[in-house]
Amino acid sequence: MTKHQKRLSVPNSWPVARKEQTFTVKADAGPHGEDGVPLLIVLRDVLGYVDSRKEARYALNNDAVLVNGDAIADEGRPIGMFDILAFPAREEYFRVFPGEGGRLALTPIDEESAASRLGKITDKRQVTGGEFQLSLHDGTTLQLEDADEYSAGDSLVIDNEDKEIVAHFEYGEGALVTAVDGQHAGEIGEVDEILVTPGSGRNSVTVSTDDGSFETVEEYVVTIDENFVGDDDE
């Protein structure tokens, strides 16, 4: 299987110039599905920390890059929404956040904020043995004995060291959310109304912002809190 992909066919979330070269690196299987951006692209094309795949592999082999608290050895590892990238030797930390047009962008954060990450609950079900399984937007699954307080659409903050839940943000009218896809990606506001579409159609939400309001597909919004968007260093 080829390790290259035509730039013109990459997902809109990838922060790459589509017309500069014909091919770019292809993401390996892993978190975030087809929207995951290969770590090599982040290191080379976004941050400019390396100039080649060889340099990226050298850095990764020396545990210079952590993703969600774990040292990564694969330069093709997909990076996606709300991942935490840490460069301990540089004392630099970033959160992957939606930018204009839905493209992934890196938001500088401090070391304390880099100790945990956000995950949106996309599914909740009871599994064999009576426990409950929560599935998050990036493919992570959590097994809990009691999950009554959690619902699909809520967001969790997961500690990157022990993988425990450290905060819970409920989704619903009045919740603070950010749009992560569509023309309003990156905008933040409070949910005014959830518009339920009968049948198999997708629900939508209206969100009020400091500059007005917008309407978008419900699955495009993620619940956050004020601390989550106010922790960058700049």
What does this structure look like?
The protein has 234 residues and is mainly beta. It has 3 domains: 108 residues, Roll (Structural Genomics Hypothetical 15.5 Kd Protein In mrcA-pckA Intergenic Region, Chain A), CATH 3.10.290; 55 residues, Beta Barrel (OB fold (Dihydrolipoamide Acetyltransferase, E2P)), CATH 2.40.50; 52 residues, Roll (SH3 type barrels). It is 9% helix and 37% strand. It is built from 3 helices and 19 strands. It has a 5-stranded antiparallel beta sheet with strand order 5-4-7-8-9, with no helix packed on it. A 5-stranded antiparallel beta sheet has the order 12-11-10-13-14, with no helix packed on it. The chain is globular. The chain starts with a strand and ends in a 5-residue tail after the last helix.
